Amino acid sequence: SITINLAATSDAPRGLREIRLVTPDGITKPAFLSVDDLPPIAEKEPNNSPGEAQSITLPAVITGKIQADLDVDCFKFSAKKGQRLIFDVQAYRKGARLECSLTLLDSAGRRGAHDEDTNGLDPFIDYLVPADAQYTLHLQDLQFKGGNDFAYKIRAGEIPYVDAIFPLGGQRGR
Length: 174
Description:
There is one protein chain. This protein is mainly β.
């Protein structure tokens, strides 16, 4: 077992990095490191139902793990009418076994949005908030499995996200 401490400078480019160790016995499997400018929030149990949902403040990067079979993670937050909220799960893309379902519930427990596989096998929700209220984010594995390799990260809040580019081409240098 090796422990490595890493630090990013404030001007480090944001995004996902792949890290491997080269040893006399070979090269390790990739580990992924994410450099982000959003505040981190670590999942805390118990948060297995909307009634036990962990309170969070957006924007943030939520990190957690579906720890065991049938585990569910819920997070509650306040939102205002007209906000455009992005919820971008990164799990399967980072090598986790988690194939998850992400659901956004309103204060009455009604489904406002749901996704399972927009980015490969990772969910993505782009949600225009219809009313000032408390909302709950509900995440679980599609096969109701869990374990140490079922980790996830959710970039969440009013954050930039490119959903279209135009024009699709152009002359070099212009």
